[in-house]
Here is the input.
Amino acid sequence: MLFEVAPYEVRVVLLLLCATVNPVEFEVYREGEAYRIVPILDDKGLRLANLPKELRFVYKERKVISLHGEKDGNLHVMQDVYAVLSDLNFKTL
Here is the structure.
């Protein structure tokens, strides 16, 4: 499901497998060149999935770069999200 929220912000909801066996639903926003990923989980779910309330990244020089620092333990989640977005041609919107 993909729809425009504002001129430079696009929202998409994705389901991905994270640290849990169950898929995690995310809201993904594109804000200019940056992406913001928000897991749709309560506090207990965030702890179980080992996820923060939001993740932020940019795609530069053909790689996903976390805006939370180089040693972000959730980089794999951001990479998975970007891979799904690439399949949807989301980055070209």
Notes: The chain has two helices and six strands. The radius of gyration is 13 Å. The chain has one domain: 2-92. Residues 1-10 have pLDDT under 50 and may be disordered.
